[in-house]
Amino acid sequence: MAANNLESTNQPMIADVIGNFLAAPPAGTPPELLESFSLMLRNGGSGLPPHLFQEVVDQAPVAVSVTDRKANILYANHAFERLTGYDRREAVGKNESLLSNKTTPESVYQNLWQTISASAHWSGVLVNRRKDGSEYLAELDIAPVLDREGRVSHYLGMHRDITEVDRLQRENGYQKELFQSVLNAAPVVVALLDTQQRVILENQEYQRLKSDLGGEPFAVFRRALEEQAELSLSVACELGRPFRNQEVRLDQAGGAGPRWFSCSGAWVCGFNDAVSAYFSEDNQAQPCLLLLANEITARKREVERARLQHLRAVLAEQQLAEGMREALAAAVFQLQGPLNVIEAATRMLDSGGGDPASLRGMLSEILNSGRKTLETMQAVLPETVVEAQNSVNLNEILHEVIQLVTERLLVNGIVIDWRPEAVVPAVSGVGKQLRGLFKYLMDNAIRALEGSRSNAREIRILTCEEDGLVMVEIQDNGPGIPREEQIKVFEPFYSAWRHGEKGAGMGLALAREIANRHGGGLTVDPDFEDGCRVRVELPGRGSGL
Ligand code: FAD
Fold first, then answer.
1. Which of 45, 220, 321, 331 has the least C-beta neighbours within 10 A?
2. Distance CA 255, CA 240 (A)
3. 80 lines ligand 1 (CB under 6 A)
4. Which atom of ligand 1 is nearest to the CA of 98?
């Protein structure tokens, strides 16, 4: 029974060791030990000639020792000598505790002895010390050897140095843990899939999505990529082609609404752990798919909301314009009446006829029609909308304006010299109005350069902060505004353009009004002679100005 136990746990090594030991027992080997080993060999001997057993055990790469019941060493092989640094003549007669580093917990030894005293095989790890004082981790197997009565008579020990293996394992474990923590910290869904498209690594975001979808997210992504982005993962894998930012929409049951993900994938070399791949030359090159999916639902919803808002605004503007056109047409029609009456009155006066009473009647008719026309026009005047004030970043606003006019800049060969201060204080204001202000100024600058003969057309835009004020300068190298007109350009309906351009001449007047409404000002630099330089100053949000 006990021999069978030994056979099942440590064959064939122990059988070899015993056979070898029996074939050429070292001097002083107790006869009862030889007897026990003979008994065991009858059950599991390998059939090799005894001298070969001796050779095999002596040259075995694992440290082998045979002890009495108190762990006193009776035999040790070459590997034992090499590993421990003790000559076998030195070791024989000493206790195995000779190898103890005295740092293995007492409980481990207790477990070891409890197990082997109960005739069972023990295997575990101990911290050992060599003769030269260096320590190593020993993976130890102890097999009790039983006498005829089935009592433990000796112990057979085999151990090997696993210091490096353990270090590598711990390092590997640490690397894995580190890698997993990094993956978990990433706010995107990450999964690594093997060639059979099985998930071999996933992060917490992936697991969360799995529970949201009630299934494997990868399968859903694969289908969505095929259906919505016309991207076949099998084809991409064959070609080794990565993909980036493929947007997919996943619809879920219930009222949660759709979710959008931006998917990217890269083919990375995975490790092939199949034993059969050992001799294969490309056993390392298994293409694994690293799938990253970034949830963009919030952004998509925001874009959708903005699109609808924009549509609504366009529709409202269209309706307003339509209403104004109708009202103006009515006013024009109504004006026709008094004009006809004036014409008749003029004719009457020219012919020397017409008494004061009929003239008064005509005048009162004109007055009534005039009032009606005025009322019609006033009724369609759009109401001034009070817009909410927000924290506005002027650099952002100017950047948007530049983008809005880019096409005109390109058409006219105008270069923008954009010199923003890296961080400008926020301004409290209505973004739409401020955008309008700078758009007026940019339109003016572009218009000035359109008529310029200069080859180097340039608009310089500068932002900076001065004593709590955010200053914006828009400067063009066009013809500039003559000094005598620099005040007039701010009058409503005054236009200084010389080239017959359309426009009501309201731009600068409106722009200054917007700047004033925001507690700031707008000036044209009177000393700038190489074109026109307009300066807008607005109080920074926290400036208390
Ligand atoms: P010990 O005085 O040996 O006692 C430690 C604990 O073990 C105590 O709890 C004690 O009660 C119990 N114990 C000790 N001897 C017996 C016994 N005969 N019966 C029941 N309980 C007992 N140790 C190593 O550190 N490294 C080795 O590589 C190693 N190889 C071994 C190989 C074999 C085949 C055997 C049988 C033992 C081996 N040992 C090894 C264990 C070693 O004999 C010591 O028990 C251990 O080193 C602790 O030594 P110690 O002097 O600190 O304490």
1. 321
2. 39
3. no
4. 47
- Strand (E) or helix (H) holding 315: helix 297-350
Residue 75: burial class (beta carbons within 10 Å; 0-12, 13-18, 19+): buried
3-class DSSP state of 423: coil
One-letter amino acid for residue 283 of the chain: N
**Cβ neighbours of residue 226 under 8 Å, at least 6 residues apart?**
232, 233
Region of residue 74 (left: phi > 0; alpha: psi -120 to 50; beta: else): alpha
Compute the Cα dihedral for 533, 538, 543, 545 and give only its sign: positive
The letter for the amino acid at 432 is K
DSSP 498: S
CA separation for the pair 52, 65 (Å, rounded): 18
CA-nearest of 343, 342, 330 to 375 is 330
What digits encode the pLDDT tens for the residues 277-326?
667 665 556 788 999 999 999 999 998 888 888 888 787 778 777 777 88
pLDDT of residue 11: 35
Kind and range of the H or E run holding 89: helix 88-91
The structure's pTM equals 0.54
Tell me, in angstroms, the distance from the centre of ligand 1 to residue 95's CA: 8
Q: Is the CB of 76 under 6 A from ligand 1?
A: no
pLDDT of residue 283: 55
Take residue 23 and report the two structure tokens written for it: 């074939």
Q: For the chain, how many helices (H) and strands (E)?
A: 16, 17
160 Cα to the center of ligand 1, angstroms: 17
Residue with tokens 């080993």: 37
Share of the chain above pLDDT 90, in %: 44
CB 440 within 8 A of CB 511: yes
Using the 8-state DSSP alphabet, how is residue 540 labeled? B
